[in-house]
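Title: Prediction job returns without error message
Component: structure pipeline
Severity: low
Priority: P3
Assignee: unassigned

Description:
Job completed but the reporter wants confirmation the result is attached to the right record. Sequence as submitted:
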Amino acid sequence: MKNGIKKISTLVFRLFVIAVIGLVLMTAYQKFNNKGEPTSFFGYQPLTVLSNSMNPIFETGDMLFVKKVDASNVKVDDIITFKESGGNLITHRVVEVINNSGEISFATKGDNNNMMDEELVQAGNLLGIQSFFIPNAGYLVKSIQSPLGMLLVVILPTLGYFAIGIFSRKRDDVDGVPMEGN
């Protein structure tokens, strides 16, 4: 029984390490191939909220997941993420959809802001619609991206994975050798 639990815990740990390594490699690959673009996982872009412009819906430190959509599918009251002219990513609510001879643009406003955004959002600057969010998860991601976070989440589990493999092989070798005098 004890041996079965040990095998299951070892398997779970190894799967966790493989998943973390896979996410790190996928993120690195996307950062290398899509310079300047947010990373996307299975069609969803995770983004951290940096201001309180959408309070009480989102707060600073929440993590949003944005799904890419065609501009023609965006409606009033949708919460969209877009790239403003300065290059910053903004997530605000659509207050008006403007279709000017087939050219779609959006008037937007942060729920916690008194005024609408000054610039219209052009369809080409649309990243997508907010699908779901995880409260405070942005803080976790930020800590993981720090050198200490990388050490704790990536490097130590990887070293642990290899250490388990080495020690389990040594134990198998010791268990398979008969003791002297028997």
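Comment from assignee: result matches the submitted record. The mean pLDDT is 79.
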